[in-house]
Amino acid sequence: MGARKAGDGAQSGMTAAGMLVLVVVFAAPVSAQQGTGPVRALSLADAMRLAEDASESVAMARAGVLRSDGELKRARSEYFPQLFASASYTRTLDSEFRAFSSGSQSDSTASSEPCGTFTPDPAMPLGERVDSLEAAVRCQSQSDPFSSFSDLPFGRENQWRLDLSLSQTVFSGGRVGAQTRAARAGRRMADLDLASSRASLMLDVAGAYYDAVLADRLFEIAQSTLAQAETTLAQIRLAKQVGSQPEFELLRAQVTRDNQQPVVIRRRADRTLAHMRLKQLLDLSPDQPIELTSDLDGSDIVEIVRLATDVVGVVPDTLAETRSPVRQAMESVHVQEAQLTIARAQRLPALSLNMQYGRVGYPENVTPFDARFRTNWTVGASIQLPLFTGGRLAGESLIARANLDEARARLDMTRELASLDTRDALERLAAAQSAWEASSGTVQQANRAYSIAEVRFSEGISTQLELNDSRILLEQAQANRAQAAREFQLARLRVALLPYLPLSGGGSAAQPASATTRMNMRPTIPATTAGAPASRTGATTSAAAARQTGAVGGR
Questions:
Q1: Beta strands 40-42 and 290-292, pairing class
Q2: DSSP states of 185-252 as a string?
Q3: Which of 359, 384, 409 is the last residue of a domain?
Q4: How far apart are CA 37 and CA 9, in angstroms?
């Protein structure tokens, strides 16, 4: 009797310990979700709107659009006349003409008799008056030979100049038109690049969001399985006390329960990491608790597809010619054709008209207000024709021709890869839909089988092994259903966004040169789940989705 009481005490102690473990396991995620503030309800549509405002890749794509607008305006500017105004002031510290001025002054000072002022006398005879005039002129010229230059700009200390210059290109051999066509093609490439960045971001956000929802679901399944194992253990412990179950069955139930506890811990860790990745993508605080309101059943996928159409401007067409990489490759061919035209235009003469209008003044002081300004106004034309450049123009033409040939070959390659990638996306969607539909009845059957197994076990008809197998099959069915739902929703969204998504497996050779270089600075989770739809950097999958959802670790 004492041994039995001791055994019962030990069993009650184990029961208390088991309940304590349950309290810790169930309470830990709740406290972790409480965070430091109120819980924020977050739907998939809300997450996509937040992500676009926080995305660096979209911001860089917008900067690329702005840059292409500037390049287009710069290219168009050569169609119009170019007018420039300038104002300058020059202070002469020393001049070569200063020596002549000093010499004349010294000569006049050294003369023995200063030159008098010529005053004609009507009473004097005509011959004497002529002789007096000639003597006065001769004296004045000998004393200051540079006096006639006193009003010219030579050696003036202060000089003000106001200029207007006008130039107009008349003929450039097609260079200006080719530059404008290349700029327009670059602008269209920038628009495609922005749409591609936004579409890729939406798919990445959807992947991260559904990963978090899947992690929540797997954690709930693990908790439910642990609760079922606890219920079975309590039943077997009670049956052991009344003597209807051996100690072996009790030990097996305890081991089954204990093996499920690490699974719950791993699922909770996966859930925390998935939420952290989603918050990082949305630029939310890591301590901000969130509640995901969109489920894996796809009830709001229609709204998401509509949002994608409104935001990205996607036309639901999966033809290879409508894919963004193909259209970017086409625009790249147009750019290279324009570059070849520019290279050839350099061999032709360039004709331009120009006009210069200027006002020049030489004041006595620094300020220009007392100056008497003079006008310089010229009109002319210039023509430039390269006669010999040492082979430079021929080399530039060869480079432009090679770039055009490469762009055309890249366009053909991109078409082929886009066709293959489109077929791959459609096949993945069909496979994901079939898997999701096939898993719908499996969960119901597994639930029914587990209910029957519970009744059979409680009535003593079946063993604990049969009950454990039914529980494992139920857990596998629920996990497979959640995984299939995630893949199906992402496959549907990927097909909806397919016209603007980059190629998923073409490599660097398949990607056309874009107006801007896209760099996604955010870390992504490598895709390890088979059949997961790919995004710009591959499908974003969490650790929970990467594991085999059917098998329970440490079973």
A1: parallel
A2: HHHHHHHHHHHHHHHHHHHHHHHHHHHHHHHHHHHHHHHHHHHHHHHHHHHHHHHHHHTSS-HHHHHH
A3: 384
A4: 44
**Which pLDDT score is estimated for 152?**
65
Range(s) of the domain holding residue 376: 84-93+154-171+350-384
Tally of CA atoms within 13 A in the half-sphere of 24 that contains its CB: 9
d(CA 547, CA 555): 15
Q: Residue 244 pLDDT > 60, yes or no?
A: yes
d(CA 476, CA 548): 9
pLDDT, mean over the chain: 78
pLDDT of res. 538: 37
Domain shared by 262 and 282, yes or no:
yes
Handedness of CA 149, 151, 156, 159 (dihedral sign): negative
Q: What is the pLDDT of residues 100-125, one digit of tens each?
A: 544 444 444 444 455 556 566 677 77
Q: Nearest-CA neighbor of 450 among 434, 466, 428, 430? A: 466
Cα(332)–Cα(184) distance, integer angstroms: 11
Phi-psi region of 524 (alpha: psi -120 to 50; beta: other; left: phi over 0): beta
Min mean pLDDT across 100-109, 148-157, 176-185, 345-354 is at 100-109
Show the tokens assigned to 473: 């099959």
- In sequence order, the β-bridge partners of residue 379 are 355
pLDDT of 208 strictly over 80 = yes
Burial-class residue 328 by CB neighbours within 10 Å (0-12, 13-18, 19+). Answer: buried
Eight-state DSSP code of residue 357: E
pLDDT digit string, tens, across residues 504-534: 854 433 444 443 333 333 333 333 333 333 3
pLDDT of residue 431: 93
- Here the tokens at position 434 are 């079939």
> pTM score, two decimals?
0.69
What is the rounded CA–CA span in Å between residue 457 and residue 452? 9
Residue 171: pLDDT over 50 = yes
DSSP string, 432-476: HHHHHHHHHHHHHHHHHHHHHHHHHHHTTSS-HHHHHHHHHHHHH
End-to-end CA distance of the chain: 36
Output 241 or 337, whichever has higher pLDDT: 337
Is residue 363 domain-shared with residue 430, that is, in the same domain? no
38: left (phi over 0), alpha (psi -120 to 50) or beta: beta
What's the pLDDT at 139?
65
CATH number at residue 468: 1.20.1600.10
361 and 229 housed in the same domain = no
What's the total number of domains in the chain? 2
* 520 in a structural domain: no
CB 277 within 8 A of CB 525: yes
